[in-house]
Structure formats: structure tokens, C-alpha cells
Automatic annotation (TrEMBL):
Transmembrane segments: none annotated. SUPFAM superfamilies: NAD(P)-binding Rossmann-fold domains. Pfam families: F420_oxidored (PF03807). This is NAD(P)-binding domain-containing protein. Belongs to the pyrroline-5-carboxylate reductase family. Residues 9-102 form the Pyrroline-5-carboxylate reductase catalytic N-terminal domain. It comes from Streptomyces litchfieldiae.
Amino acid sequence: MTKEDTVKRIGIIGVGEIGRAIVLGLRHGGGISPEVFLSPRGARTAAELSARYEGVRVCADNQEVVDRSELVIVAVRRQDRHDALAGVRVAGDKVVVNVMAGVGNDDLRRTLATDAPLVRAIPLPAIRERRCVTVVHPAHPEVNSFFERLGGVLPVADEAAFNVFSALTGTLTAHYWYLATITSWAAGQGIAPDDADRYVRGLFQGVGRSLSDETRSLRQLAADHETPNGSNERIRTTWFDPANSEALKKALDDLLADLT
Ligand SMILES: NC(=O)C1=CN([C@@H]2O[C@H](COP(=O)(O)OP(=O)(O)OC[C@H]3O[C@@H](n4cnc5c(N)ncnc54)[C@H](OP(=O)(O)O)[C@@H]3O)[C@@H](O)[C@H]2O)C=CC1
């Protein structure tokens, strides 16, 4: 990273879940951090962040956020983008980071009518602890180094590839739901719900830790946890059978088609 690639003033339009996570990530661990300019909405989170951190300010309107920043992150919901951005002028020397799922850069350029570089990005909530690898497109030196310091950056070649990663992020809550389902199954067998909950969390925290071992492929990790003809193999092959795998891939295909 060169000194020139380090932005000193960041703007965030839309201070909700992900906007907040980005600010926490920027301030995580102390050290030198850019100034942050927040949109007046969501007011409660913006007020909380500006009270908590030096150098984080709430602006009067979205135009002021853009005017004060070198790099502007658009983090409103897709359906709010026109309200948030119509009439906002973005000079060509700014960089705009678009984190809205399902909103392509062509769409955003029509709304903003600007020549400024537009970069799509998929930050995840773990960015608040700088533990998120953020997919971006197209690669841009300032945006790359911004996300690099927040846990890592993965630039991809085109929007088609970007959308595949975006579809992958749509599988997260199904994973939690899977855990909730097996927990309630155990409770249905007469186990105290708190005990079932505690046990399932412990079981899958171990899975989370083993994922950080990148020397073993995902299939290898599965094989290493499985005894031939044992219980894990049984559930994998009877429940996660080819029809179930196909149903999952079909759901992802459909999601990808909608994102494209
Ligand atoms: N949550 C996540 O993990 C991720 C979300 N994203 C994307 O980020 C975007 C935001 O998601 P998320 O943070 O979950 O949503 P939230 O609803 O938590 O936050 C959206 C924020 O946008 C604000 N907002 C609405 N209208 C305007 C406006 N006109 N001007 C400025 N701000 C406005 C809302 O303010 P108010 O409270 O006042 O209504 C709210 O604070 C989405 O497009 C989503 O696809 C991307 C990656 C991950």
C-alpha cells in the first residue's frame, strides 16, 4: 500500500447495520484512522458513533457527506437509493463504493450521473473486527487498500463473478437456521432447550475454528470428521443427498439470476 492510496476522509450514506460495522472496523484496535462523515440517517446509530469516536461526525445532509469525503460508501437499502442519492452531486475526483446488494454500477451511475469511479463491494458484519475479506469490482487502489486494512480484499474480474460471491453471502442465515432446526429437534426429544442450544453452539464453534485451517480442503475437512459407515456419513448421505444438493444449487441459480 502506498501513502497515496490511504484515504483520509470517508463518507457513509446510510448508517445502519453495515455502515456501523464499517465505522467500528475503522476504529478497531486504535491507531491512525480516517475521519468519518455520516449521513443524518439512521440518526440513532450516527449519533451513537459520533459520540463514541473522535473524528466521526454527522453531516446535515447527504450532499455534505459527499463534499467532505474522498471516498463515499453508499450503504442504504436498494429501494432507498433514489431517495438518498437523487440530486446529490459527486465530483469526478471522488471514489464511490457501492455496497448495495443487487445494484449494479450502471444503475448507480444513472442515479448519480457522475464520472467518478464506482466500485462495488461486499463487506460483511465481521468487518467490525477487521475479520472480513471484502470482494470488490473493479479493483481500485484506494478502495483495495481501504478494505485490505479492514481484513482483506478480493478483487474480481467482472460483475458476473461479483454476483456469484454476492449469491454466496445469501446462504448465511440458512446456516443459522440449520443450527436452530437441529437444536429444536433435540428439544423435541426431551432435552432442555438451553442444554441443546449450548451444546450445538459448542459443536459448531469447533467447525468455525477448523475452517481457519486452510491447509485442508473443505471436502478433506468433511472426510477427516467422518468415520466410514458412522453417524456423520449417515446424515450427510441420507439428508444431504444428491436431491438436496441439487435443490440448494437451484436456489443459488435462481438467486444469481435475480442478482444479475
Ligand atoms: N447488513 C449486512 O450484513 C450487509 C448489507 N449490505 C447492503 O448494505 C445496505 C444496507 O444494509 P443494512 O445496513 O443491513 O440496512 P439497514 O436498514 O440496517 O441500514 C440502512 C440505513 O439506510 C438509512 N437510510 C434510508 N434512507 C436514507 C436516505 N435517504 N439517506 C441516508 N440514509 C438513509 C436508514 O436510515 P433510517 O434508520 O433513518 O431509516 C438505515 O440506517 C443494503 O443495500 C444491503 O444490501 C451489504 C453487505 C452486508
